[in-house]
């Protein structure tokens, strides 16, 4: 719903351009709703290409000074920002709870995990240095990194702090200016973060914040002065962003959705596996690209039945709410209806609903979009909920007759983000790790998110990843810089050689084509 500037009575979140809060050229705003109550909590600017142009001009003014600073000086500012985030973690977490619906512990983890990447960016002076080597007589080769210029980072609603921090600090320390476009559903967290960046000493124009929807996104992608684009969101939009960037010969990394599979063998630890499966599938209301979506149990028997019983026992203990350990709401009514639609469809197709999260809305007076933990036992691996991304606290369970069938199900899904094997046998784990078709794999870890310095990203050639490089770690360092190669030859005047000098020209270097024919 859009409201005009004159009728909006809530907090107005404007763009932040060159250190100032600027209203959108449209003078139009969109309500921001709390998913816990479905009530509006703010209104956020709806920007167009005119606002993007203003942000670009600001970045152009800031870029020469920022990019000419030493990488150590830029990293020092990021370390100040890291300290400020720690000091204000509870405030940032409270904003995440308000606008996203995570429980308090999950919100604090969102901040802490994002701040890990900020900390990693502070180490880039020790990681991004170039190399130099004498490669032949009087000739040396050197490589060095230079900034791209202005880059755009387009981020989703599900992790209001962590996902923006995947790209922002690394891009900045590498010498770029960043235009950040947060989700219009969760703008409050980044609005406060901009104030912390300014307090840390990031100069005006080095980071600009643009709010809005498709018009702002397309304006950023299409602008010739934006040299690279990062995107995290759904697979269809990730594919669109990548193809649009390709048409402009523009660097892009775009992360899409997921359908993550867990495979449990009969030798797994029942207690730990059940706990991990529930946390992976229901944590953050299932709205994360690393959430467990399908549990494949190999074989039938007492231990397999006991595992399902323990999963149901632990899932039933979850309560709705945003206090520590509780299960929060999904982001909005559209998400709620989509998730419930998958449960309805599974039931109609003959699947057995072992635990029904639809009951959470019965007699609910909060107005929030709560879906309880749901466990569905499928008899067909072709059910929609077995194949498509649900993005909610829904776990599909399927019994496979063999390791071969289990790995075939995982391999055939079009996504390639994550997979996990539960077992007590290292040899069994190795068999599956070698055969999974995903970029981030776990052994008895249902949410196998790599932590710094390891990089985050799904598998190329799947619907989970489009474009270039991983989005964090050394992949991001490479993505946000140009690698320049310099080959140098200094001529030594004849007759100046001293006794004891190494006469490298005594060796015939056939690979040296400089100056010879």
Describe this structure in words.
The structure is a single chain. The chain is 37% helix and 21% strand. The termini are far apart. It has helices at 49-68, 71-87, 89-100, 104-122, 124-127, 162-173, 188-200, 214-222, 235-247, 270-282, 302-316, 333-348, 384-387, 403-412, 426-433, 473-479, and strands at residues 2-4, 12-13, 15-17, 20-22, 28-33, 40-45, 131-136, 139-147, 150-154, 177-181, 207-209, 226-232, 251-255, 260-264, 292-298, 352-355, 374-377, 394-400, 418-422, 440-443, 465-467, 481-489.
Largest sheet: 7 strands, mixed
Provide a count of the helices: 16
The gyration radius over C-alpha positions equals 26 Å
Question: For the largest beta sheet, what order do the strands appear in spatially?
Answer: 16-17-18-15-14-19-20
Low-pLDDT segments, ≥5 res: 1-8
| Percent helix range | 25-40%
Distance between the termini: 71 Å
Structural class: alpha/beta
Form type: globular
Overall pLDDT score: 94
What's the topology here?
Layout: E1 2-4, E2 12-13, E3 15-17, E4 20-22, E5 28-33, E6 40-45, H1 49-68, H2 71-87, H3 89-100, H4 104-122, H5 124-127, E7 131-136, E8 139-147, E9 150-154, H6 162-173, E10 177-181, H7 188-200, E11 207-209, H8 214-222, E12 226-232, H9 235-247, E13 251-255, E14 260-264, H10 270-282, E15 292-298, H11 302-316, H12 333-348, E16 352-355, E17 374-377, H13 384-387, E18 394-400, H14 403-412, E19 418-422, H15 426-433, E20 440-443, E21 465-467, H16 473-479, E22 481-489
Parallel strand pairs: 2-6, 9-10, 9-12, 10-11, 12-13, 14-15, 14-19, 15-18, 17-18, 19-20
Antiparallel strand pairs: 1-5, 3-4, 5-6, 7-8, 8-22, 13-21, 16-17
